[in-house]
């Protein structure tokens, strides 16, 4: 069995999710850095790996997987020593899935909608900002009953959410202080997710790359 090939970029939050899970599970991987800011994910070579032209992706001995959330589920299921990050209990796992669907279906596309104009120095649509606030209110609701996003323990849902939510303030100047449970949860993530500094480093590098893009106004 050869090593997993991991296609990623530190500027990409979903890539960081996979990198963190690989690190937590101590899975050796051959990393291939893709220069997403300069069209690297659209190269003919990379499109053979992911026809969608996006990072992250893994190649586990011929099994090519894209979509960060599907990848981390697979990694924990296949390589995890226990099920703590991705519980096997039906109800607990259903809650993890529910949160990841919210993350992929609402939170992440919305963030794309906000970052798009920011890349080019354009005004962010106030409707998008309002929907970010609504989404953050939902996250606050998830944290009403539980310390973590999908129950009493840290799971892959926390890692995925953290990689998105941590960037709101530094990249988009979005004030998260009106969401105290989320602020407290993010602090816990910074203490409990091994190598959490990768998230901050990724946002720092992404900000530098965003600032380099010529602005329209
Ligand atoms: N739903 C995907 C999103 C992947 C995604 O949007 N990747 C972006 C970087 S954050 C990308 O590769 N963009 C390059 C492009 O579209 O050319 C996941 O979670 O893996």
Automatic annotation (TrEMBL):
Specify the protein name: GSTd3
Mind listing the GO molecular function terms for this protein? Answer: glutathione transferase activity
Q: Pfam families, per this entry? A: GST_C, GST_N_3
Domain GST C-terminal residue range list: 89-214
Task: Please report the organism this UniProt entry assigns to the protein.
Answer: Liposcelis entomophila
**Record's PROSITE patterns?**
GST_CTER, GST_NTER
Residues spanning the membrane:
none
Q: What biological processes does GO assign it?
A: glutathione metabolic process
Q: Which SUPFAM superfamilies match?
A: GST C-terminal domain-like, Thioredoxin-like
> Which residues are in the GST N-terminal domain?
2-83
